[in-house]
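Regression test attached.
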Amino acid sequence: EDQVTQSPEALRLQEGESSSLNCSYTVSGLRGLFWYRQDPGKGPEFLFTLYSAGEEKEKERLKATLTKKESFLHITAPKPEDSATYLCAVPLSSSASKIIFGSGTRLSIRP
Amino acid sequence: KAGVTQTPRYLIKTRGQQVTLSCSPISGHRSVSWYQQTPGQGLQFLFEYFSETQRNKGNFPGRFSGRQFSNSRSEMNVSTLELGDSALYLCASSGGPGDTQYFGPGTRLTVL
């Protein structure tokens, strides 16, 4: 069964303290893995799409990496404005038009 | 390029009523997906439309329905509202199946 699992559920960091969020997936024939950021009460904001193992993408303090079983979102020297819920998602192996989301990691950065 | 827009942004209804939500995708996008987001269940897929055809449906009762128009705008309808339907309803558009989806701001539905 296709599944996406994110860990940890919540993470509290001090400003400047780097860390990583994990997204593990069980989908055969991965057609892409998406990372989003969501602020409370708002729609998810697109961050990255990764397609193949070994691929990396960066944006400001964020870097996403992909292996055959999981993806990591590395946050370097975070700031309080990086506080949000980070979601990862993949298309189902049976239907690319159906996307399944992980439950997210709630990230809180203390000044 | 304008992003995905959703109307209304907030809605309060009572049990038993019905509601229609609207979504306008990014210009040129032909795929529109709908999601329900609640604190307990997270983001759950409702359905996806492409070129006016529903191609996928999630595990929701038949009270949830949708449609897509020739200009790719989409509506979803929920009939006979229940308290448990209170949620943030999100619409996302993409160029095609499996492409990156871009989300709208959502419609916050409260059922009393």
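Expected vs. actual: identical. Chain A touches chain B at residues 31-32, 34, 36, 41-46, 49, 87, 89, 91, 95-104 (CB under 8 Å).
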